[in-house]
Amino acid sequence: MRLNHFHRLILEFVRVAGEAGRTDDEITLGLYLHPDAARPRRYELVTAGLVVNSGTRRKGVSGRSGIVWTAAKEAE
Which domain of life is it from (predicted)? Predict the structure, then answer.
């Protein structure tokens, strides 16, 4: 997979969070990205095996719980 600017931003943002990971809300707010720009790029990173579901969830801005994403070991 060829990473574009948004892929690299999101991957690095998730990577620096370590095991704590990031939710989609945290990614969009932390990087000042519109959800319609961030979520598809995060999905592509998951599909490429660079970002994985940590198996945990955390409450987001809306109060709903969201999946916590972490960098795959290969991406570190």
Answer: Bacteria
Model pLDDT for residues 37-55, shown as the tens digit of each residue: 999 999 999 999 999 999 9
Please report, for the chain, the start and end positions of each structural domain, with discontinuous segments joined by +. 5-75
> Whole-model pTM above 0.90?
yes
Q: Which architecture does CATH list for 5-75?
A: Orthogonal Bundle (1.10)
Tracing tokens 């592509």 back to the chain, one arrives at 44
DSSP the chain: ----HHHHHHHHHHHHTGGG-B-HHHHHHHTT--HHHHHHHHHHHHHTTSEEEEEEEEE-TTS-EEEEEEE-GGG-
